[in-house]
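Today's session is about reading a structure prediction critically. Students often jump straight to the picture, but the first step is always the sequence itself: look for stretches that repeat, for charged clusters, for runs of hydrophobic residues. Only then move on to the predicted structure, which in these notes is written as discrete structure tokens rather than atom positions. Here is the chain we will use throughout the hour.
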Amino acid sequence: MSNINTNTKHSIVNCRLAIASEHSDNTKGITNVLKAAFNEYISEGFLFDFSIDNEQNFKKIKPKSELDDGEIFELHKMYMVLIRDTQSNKDWVKIETCIELESLSEAELRAILKDKVSFKDDDTILVANISTSEHVII
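Below is the predicted structure for this chain, in token form.
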């Protein structure tokens, strides 16, 4: 359900949520609750649309000590993989993942990526830990 108005400016807001631990294993339930809440705001005219990017693969975090507001998100590692895909197109393919890529060999990384996108063995693959990078939107 969306409520997009043509020829009207819309703000795009990225948001991260930490779900209570008693619900953290119920990905379908979490997704349904968020969709119901967001749809209510769409019908009220506040939201126009939404997407839940990782609804099948929520990252689980187990803090080892008490945290201040917002600190739980610092424990969440996020990686961006860029592949220069010359096999099917001439552009870069961007993949964002919570899979711990730092511990993988290049062969293991390529094996995981081959399940999601096609590329040649000599295509360029760049990996960045974006959870430690500064995010600037212009």
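Discussion point for the tutorial: DSSP finds two helices and three strands in the chain.
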